[in-house]
Request: fold
Amino acid sequence: MPRIVSRDEWLVARKQLLAEEKAVTRARDALSAKRRRLPMVKLDKTYVFRGPGGDVSFPEVFQGRRQLYFHHFMWNEERGFCPGCSAAADMIFNNPHVRAALAERDLMFTCVSRAPIETIEGYKKERGWTFPWVSSADNDFNYDFHATLDESRAPIEYNYRSKEELIAAGFKAEDLNGDWTGASVFLRDGDEVYHTYSVYARGQDHLTVHYNYLDLTPYGRQEDWEDSPAGWPQRPTYG
Reply:
């Protein structure tokens, strides 16, 4: 349990924390401003995706909007679709009000997986989902944007670290394969598509709605990496 104090003592501590929270908010605003000023890269490779109605060109994925947010929906041939991505789909992706709010700002939200479109459509039907989701099974998209690691398709890179850097950071070489969490953002100018941003790993934490609620509570996310007092409830992050 947290330490019990008087209301006056609590208020002093809360105001001290508020000053730090405001500093983080201002720092986040400044970081977002820098993100908006990132240069971009024109896509020279042609990617054709597969949708429920057939082939879809990259410009067509935007559905007339200027901006595109691609969630890399993880998939494994043996285990199927990622439980974490599926939970996010239930909470966020399948909410039409969320997608409408993004559309108001000229942003198209879509998921992409290297699973065959038939597998994707079957899973969507099973879960009752209606959000846009295309397959990259027949192109190099997942490998080029480092959401799928396969050294036979592209040099290993994740979260802007090379294979050697990942191993030095503690990853096992044999684990550097398959789908990994990520999201990519693109901007369209006519039929020209530009890559503006990709984020991986915990860089997406603020996009996961329930984390934001848990971060305000005494016990937090209750994951073993957190800095919490001894005896606080915790469990393995991916347990």
